[in-house]
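User: My instructor asked us to take a sequence, write out its structure as tokens, and then describe one feature of it. I'm not sure where to start. Here is the sequence I was given:
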Amino acid sequence: MVPDQKSLGKSRTVMVRVMGLLAVLVGLVALACAGAEPAAPAPAATAAPAATAAPAATVAVAAVVEEEEEAVARPTATQVTFKKLTDTDTRVIAQASSRPAITADVIASILDLSASELVTTFPGSFPREYALEDVKYGGVYRHATGHDFSTWDPRRSGSGGTNTWASMVYERLFTYEQGTQRDPYNPAPVPMLATSWEYSTDGTALTFKLREGVYWGDIDDPSAQGPEIVAEDFAWLFPEYRDNSAHGGNYRTVDRIEVVDKYTFIVHFTEASYWVFPYLVGKDALFVNPYLARADRADRELVGPGPWRLVEAKKNIETRWERNPNYYMKDDIGQALPYLDGVRFITVPDGSTRLAMLRTGKSEASMNILNTARDVQQLLKSNPDTVIMATVGTCGGFTASMNMDNPVFSDVNLRRAMTLGHDNKGMGEVIYGGTTCPSDNMRWFWWTDEAPTWESDLDALYGPYHNHYDVAKSKELFAKTGLDDFELSLSYFMYYSIMSDMVSLFAADMAAIDIKIKLKNQDYAGFNGALQTGTYPELTYAWHASGYDPVGDVQVKFQSASTSNRENINDPIVDALADDLLKAADPADQRVIVNQIRAQLNDQVYWVPGISSAVSFATVYQPWVKGQGAGNGASMCCYYLSDFLTHVWLDQ
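Assistant: Let's start with the prediction itself. The structure tokens for your sequence are:
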């Protein structure tokens, strides 16, 4: 089954408008673990494959919208315009008709390609190149990863270092379609633990029907099925995630859970909460085994209903996983999933070593190894058969975040001086060869119709501070602070090989305005722990937590009560607007409020934007790997690894 839309009618126009638009907008994200974040069918129930049913749900929603005279126009992935950014007026192609051949001439011309040409040359989606009947079972998929585990409990963190491992055994109610033929920008939500969802007319109640015959696993004998997953479990899980997890901001409007029957429950909200469903489909909504959690063992053990079972974990070395023989999903023709015998995550902090492992065939894939078009060209020169998928950037990226709990940042003149003193466009020229866009803490398609470029009206888009480079004005503002011989510490983790260049160039910019930056390259556990709790002393150069639509994004990142508020922002104006945003049902009204929030954030400057690539090359793998897809909900570096590995097979 798929989400039940039959009862939707004109009386539910607002909900349809919101959910229809959100389904598109949330799908536009190209993840690269930092937000750039990556032919098997979609996950399917044994009796009803989701791959065929999910599009039907989309059609049903569209049909209802078309009945309304004032229906909101909903952009599609093919309507995302990259005008000046690509020097052409082309449109992003969501799915290629076939995978283009990468010839010697193509490799030689890579550095001359525009952003749109790179996306079409290395598409994030293409038709499946094999029949399901030809899938080969077996083999171990080796993945070189840059991060390591710190806790197994998905309640405790929203980081890839937690969710990578948790996603191997825990699942969501819904997830995104996987496989090479998926839409990389707008993948369909498909059933996992739940088979259907339905909002009430006013959006204050959300009903789920669970899949029958799925089991948590026995916490004392992981090879056994353990207790069945039932509605009562979620009567405990939803309040638990609201009150006792790092994801509490996403559950802040949850009031109570009503258990209707063994497999049906209703989430009641304090107010209309259409934005919650996109979150529940996304990366962070993994549900911990409640039996393990209540036994206070979830931090150090993993037992769940997912496709994999943990065999061995050696910190800073590797983790090994084997196929869960009790896994409930089948492919489109009824074959058991996953196809692989196992997965091996090898911890390799150094990006150049991860790249070497891919080059020499010692890994099937390596995370975060291609950052620029030049990187792509160099890899293909030595390994021309490597499969590379590119997707459109979000103009988000890393930021130098300020800990607003530290009194030193109470002076807005300091904050404004720092952002005016940073040449992120120039940094992009050095690191990305200029294939960048102005950076914001919200993905561009949530607040504007057209991707921003450096030729855009930056004052109108960002105000007078962010994405402006004015050393004279910066020094003038810094002089007003009265600070002398001033030094700040900046912590970072080497997510990519270019991280050291990014923070070094930032430090050089700050030195030019008389602010000394002490760089602290941390191990993953130390860096991520401080990031998650907002306890880094002064500055951190990091990715941001993210919502799955503009409403959720604001609640997660900027609302003062959110546990994912990286900068510890406590801005009454932002909080008041965030509350107004929750009540706004019309997408046009939402956009107005989002831009009011952005105006306040950009004026107050709680972070310094970093560079943002216009193209992400996050999905890179060996030619014998089949079934991987790219784009939103398919990040190779973290979060969705288990989802798409469930559909991967090795043609060896």
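For the description part of your assignment, you could build on this observation: Residues 1-94 have pLDDT under 50 and may be disordered. Try explaining in your own words what that tells you about the chain.
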